[in-house]
Amino acid sequence: MAGFLSDLVQYRRLWLMIVVLGIGGTHLSGFQMSVINYASPYIQKFINDTWLERYGSVLPQETLMLLWSLVVSVYCMGGMIGCLCSGYLTATFGKKKCLLFNDVVLITATLHTGFSRTAKSFEMILAGRFLEGIAAGICMNAHVQYAGEISPKKLRGFINVTSTVFLALGKTVARILGLRELLGTEDMWHVLLSFSGLVALIQLIFLPFFPESPPYLLLQKKDKAGCLKAMKQLWGEGNYQTEFDDLMKEKAITKGTKIMNVLEVLRERSVYPQLCTILLLLLSLQLCGLSAITFYTSEIFLTASLHESIIPYVSLGVSISELLSIIFCSSIIDRFGRRMLLCGGYLLMALILVLLEVSLLLSDQFLWLRYCSVILIFLFIIAYGIGPAGVVVAVMNEIFTLSTRASAFVIGGIVIWLGLTFTGMIFPFAVMLLGPFCFLIFIAVLIISAVLIYLFLPETKGKSTSEITEKFRTCQFKRTRHQAVEKHTAEEKTFCTKL
Question: With the CA atoms of 393, 398, 400 and 406 taken in that order, what torsion angle do they form, in degrees rounded to the nearest 10?
C-alpha cells in the first residue's frame, strides 16, 4: 500500500495525463459504439419524418432499413479509413499532434450529429457518424501507443490496460446517459449523440500542456535532451538512466531503420512471429463469444422473468461489471504476467460458456437454471475483463519496436474493424441456424487460443522492447533450426535407404 501511494505521488503528472488521454481517447470509441443502440428508434423516426416532410410520402420500410444500416455501418467504414491513416499520422507528426488533430475532427463530427435535428437533415447524421468513425480509427491506435510509450517499465502493464478501462467506461457512460430518465428520449437523442464532442474539447484544451512520448523524441526526433526532459515531466524528479539505456539499446538495434509503412512491415520476415501473435490475439478476441453473450442477454433476462423496464438497469450492471473487472486486471497484470491472465481467462470463459450452454438447453425442464444463466452472463463478462480484454492491448504495445509499432497497429486495427463488420453481418445468421449451439464454436476458439498462446507467446512482463524482440527471434531461430535438422535427418534416411 505504501508503494502504491508513493507511486501515486511520484507519477501524479503521469496519472493526470492518462486521464486526459482516456476521456478523449478510447472512452469515446466505447461511447460511440454503444450509444447508437439507445438512439436507434428515435433516429429511424427522425429519418421517416424528415422524408415525409420533404417529399410528402411515407418512406418505404426497405429504404428506411437501408438508411439505418448505413448510419450503423458508415461508422465502421470511417474506422477503417482512420485506422489506415493513423500509421502515417503518428509516425510523421507524433502521437500528441495526431490526437489534437483528431479532437478537431471529432468536434466537427458531433456538430453534424448535434445539429442534424435542427437542420432537419438525416444526411448530417451520416456525415457525422462517418467522421466519428475516422476519429475512432485514428484515436484507438494513437492513444494506445501514446499511453504505452509514456509509461515507466514497472507500470507499463498497468498503464497499457488503462486504454481498455476507458473503452469500458465509455460503454458504461453510454448506457447511463441512454436511460430514459436522462438523454435516451425523443427530445434529447441528438444531444446524446453529440456528447462525445464535449470530452474531445476537454482533451483539446489540456493535452498541449503535456509532452510528446520519450521514445518518439529520442528515436524519431533524435532529441536526447527532450527525451530526458519528458521523462522528468511525466515521472517526476529521479534517475531514469535504466529506462534511457533501454531506449538507447533500441536505437542501436534500429539504427539506420526508418519508420516502416504497412507494406514494408508485411514484407519484413523478422516481425512475422509478432504479426502472427497479434492476429491470433485479435481474432480470438473477436470470436471469444462476447457477441453471442450480447445477443442473448435480453432474451435470457426476459426468460428469467425480469420486468422489461428493469432490463436496461441490469444491462448497465453488466457494463459496470466489465469496467470493474478490467480495472482489477490493470492492478494485477504486472504481478501475474500476460500469459497467465490470457490463458487462464480464455479457459475460464470456455468453462462458463459450457455451463451456459447446458443452462440454456435445460432451462425449459429446470426453471431455476434461467437464473443461473443470468449469473453466468455476469461471470463471463468478469472473466473477459480480467483476461483478454485488458491484456491483449498491453501485449500488442510491448512486442513491436518503434519502427514497426505504428504500422503493426494499423494492421491490427484493420483486423478489428473487419472483425466488427464480419461478426455484425454473419453472426445473426449463425444464431438463426444454430441457436444456442453457436456457443460451441466459441468454446472451441477459446480452448485453441489458450493452447496456442501458452505455446508461442513469450512472457513480456518486466522486459524491454529489445529483450522481447530478441525472445521472438530466439524462438523463431529454434523453430527454423529444428525444421532444418528434421529435414537433414529425413534426407540422410532417404540416402541410406537408396544405398
Answer: 50
Classify residue 454 by burial, with Cβ atoms within 10 Å: 0-12, 13-18, 19+: middle
What is the predicted pLDDT for the residue at 303? 65
Tell me what pLDDT residue 346 has.
94
The three-state DSSP-derived secondary structure of 354-407 is HHHHHHHHHCCCCCCHHHHHHHHHHHHHHHHHHHHHHHHHHHHHHCCCHHHHHH
| Inter-CA distances, 4 with 7, 113, 151, 165, 257, Å | 5, 43, 15, 19, 38
Q: Write down the pLDDT at residue 316.
A: 86
Q: Give me the helices (H) in 435-464, please.
A: 439-456
Give dist(CA 306, CA 302) in Å, integer. 5
Q: Which amino acid is at 26?
A: T
Q: What is the pLDDT of residue 403?
A: 82
Exposure string of 465-491, with b = 16+ CB inside 10 Å and e = fewer, is: bbebbebbeeeeeeeeeeeeeeeeeee
Residue 289 φ/ψ, nearest 5 degrees: 105, 0
Distance CA 21, CA 143 (A): 7
Distance CA 426, CA 484 (A): 42
User: How far apart are the C-alpha atoms of 378 and 359, rounded to whole Å?
Assistant: 14
Question: For residue 495, what pLDDT is reported?
Answer: 42
For every residue of 132-175, DSSP letters joined together read HHHHHHHHHHHHHHHHHHTS-GGGHHHHHHHHHHHHHHHHHHHH
- Other CB atoms within 10 Å distance of the CB of residue 183: 21
Q: Are 57 and 114 in contact (CB under 8 A)?
A: no
For 210-271, where are the alpha helices, taking DSSP H only?
214-215, 224-235, 241-253, 262-267
- Split the chain (499 residues) into runs of 10 and give each run's mean pLDDT: 56 88 75 81 90 87 84 86 88 90 93 92 93 90 88 84 88 87 88 89 93 88 89 84 83 71 87 91 86 68 68 82 90 87 94 89 80 88 90 87 85 83 68 76 92 89 81 64 47 47
User: Phi-psi category of 306—alpha, beta or left, where left has phi over 0 and alpha has psi -120 to 50?
Assistant: beta
Asked whether 140 and 413 are in contact (CB, 8 A), the reply is yes
Positive or negative, the CA dihedral 178, 180, 181, 183 is positive
Closest alpha carbon to 63 in 85, 47, 79? 47
